[in-house]
Amino acid sequence: MIQQILDRVAGHERRFNTLFEEYLDTVGARIGAPSFSRFTPDCLQLLKDLSLRGGKRIRVVLLHEAARLVTAEPVDGLDAAALSIELLQTHGLVHDDLIDDSPTRRGGPSTYYAYRERFPGHPQTALGLTVLAGDLALALSLRVLLDAGLPVAVRQAMAEVQTRAAADTFVGQIIDLERDFDDTAGEETLHSVADYKTARYSILAPMQLGLLAAGGQPDHFVSELRDYARLVGICGQMRDDYLDLFGDAATMGKPTGTDLRDGRRSYTVSALLSAVSGAERAVVQAALGDPSCTPEAVAAVREIGENRGVRDRMQADMRRHAERASAVAAGWRTRWREEAVTFFELLPRWSVEREM
Hints:
By secondary structure, the chain is mainly alpha-helical. 75% of the residues lie in helices and 1% in strands. The chain has a two-stranded antiparallel sheet with strand order 1-2. α4 (78-100) packs antiparallel against α6 and α15 packs antiparallel against α16 (338-353). The longest helix has 30 residues, at 2-31. Keywords: Isoprene biosynthesis, Magnesium, Metal-binding, Transferase. Belongs to the FPP/GGPP synthase family.
C-alpha cells in the first residue's frame, strides 16, 4: 500500500505541473490588461517562473488525498482548487522574499530581486511591483474558484476556505515578526506561529477543499481537522528549524545558520537559549542577529547544541508531535476510506524523517 500511495502522490504532482503551466500560459488573456501595458505581461511571467520552479506540491497532494477520503472516483472542482492553493502559495513566496529581503528562491532570483535588477535606479518601483505581483497571485487564487464550473454553494464554500486561510496566514506573518521582538516568547507562541503561518493554509485548507469537492462536509469535522493540521504544521516547522542548524548544507543545497544570522527565535534557537548559560550562551548570543556570522561560528553553535542535547531533544519533540498527528488520523478509519486514511497517518512521520 505504501508504494501505491507514493506512486499516487507522484502522479498528483506530475498532472498538476502540466495543469499549472497551461493555466499560467493563458491567464494573461483572462485578466484583460490594456494592450499597451508592458509591465503586466512581465509580472505574469515572473509569477509563472516562480510558480513552476520546483516545489513538492504537497498541498495539491493533500487536496486530492482528502477527496479520496470520501471517494476514489474523479471529483469535479479539484483542478480549480489545486490552482487556487498554489496561486496562494505563490503569493506567499513573493511576499515572504520581500519581507526577508531574500535574493533567491528555488534556485532562481526572487521576484523582488528580479524587479530590482529590472529597475536598478527605481527602488520604490521595484518594491511596488513586487507587492502588486503578490497581490495579483492572491486575487487569481480566489478568481479561479469563483470561475469554476461548480454549484454556487460549493464555489462559495471553497472561496470562504481560501479567504480564511489567507487571512490566517497574514496574521501568522505578523506574529512571526512580533515573536522576534519578544525575549519571553515561549513554546506556545512558537506553536501559534506555525499554526497560523503554515498549518492553516498548507494543511487545513487543502483538506477542507478536497472534502468540499467530494461532498465530505468538512464543517462536521472541523475540530479534528484543525488538530491534525496544527500538529503536522508544528512538526514540519520544527523540522525546518532543526535543519537550519543541524542539517547538512550539501544535502539541502543551502547554507545552515540562516535563523541565527537573521536573529530569528525559531524552535532551535529558543531551545538553545534555554539550554545554555555562561560562556556557551555568550557564543550563541554573539551569533544571533549577526548577518556576518561565519560558518565556523555557526559550527560552534551547532556543537554546543549537540553537546547540550538540543539536537536529540528536538528530534524527540518532532517525533512526538508526528505520532500525535498520526493518532488523530487513525481515528478516521471508522468514517473514511482506508487507503486515504493511511496516507494521512503516514504523512506526519514522513514529514519529520526526511533529511533528519
